[in-house]
Design a protein that fits this description.
The chain has 6 helices and 9 strands. By secondary structure, it is an alpha+beta fold. Strand 8 and strand 9 (192-197) form a beta hairpin. Helix 2 crosses helix 4 (101-118) and helix 5 (131-153) packs across helix 6 (164-173). It is globular.
Amino acid sequence: MNKYEGKSEQEAVKKACADLGVDASNLNYQVISVKENLFGKTVVIGIYSINDVIVFADDYIKRCLHALGLDGNTRAKYEDGVIKLDIVTNRNKNVIGRNGDTLRSINELTRSACFNRFGGHYRILLNCDGYKEVKYSKYAAIARKYANEVRRTHVTAILDPMTSDERRIIHQALTGYPNIRTQSLGAGHQRHVTIQYVPDGSKISSNED
């Protein structure tokens, strides 16, 4: 992480932009320290890239595994604005946990740690032994089943709360589905997807979070 300092945050950012040849709107940085003395104030900022976030997330996951008494590594890639980390271990069931609870908890902890470290919100998706692909396929099938029921009865289906990536699978599975609109409602851990009937001729749109 490169560091720049100035008498204010704005001055430090200006120095970084001039040195790196980028606009301030495209600069990823965090304030590392603010020191005041008899001569005024000195602000130090750290410049980071998405690769810095990936390296940090990778190390954090390994520390989580170690705390659980597990050994493992990760394979990382950045795709479509998402940091995807595949955990490789010989104790997959322990990492995944019942109904994916352990994997989900590690995912949330990693996301929070990256926010605390870099001060930004990052889409981070953990996987282990293809668990997510199997779950996504199951959710897509469930979405189509509910959609057919909604088309028959015209009664809105309210699904259980899901994570953002799981909700996205429901939206994608039903995009373009005749007479069906999906919408995410609620906040936090209670955010869920509704599948609604839309009469012929009505405008159909989906809220994909």
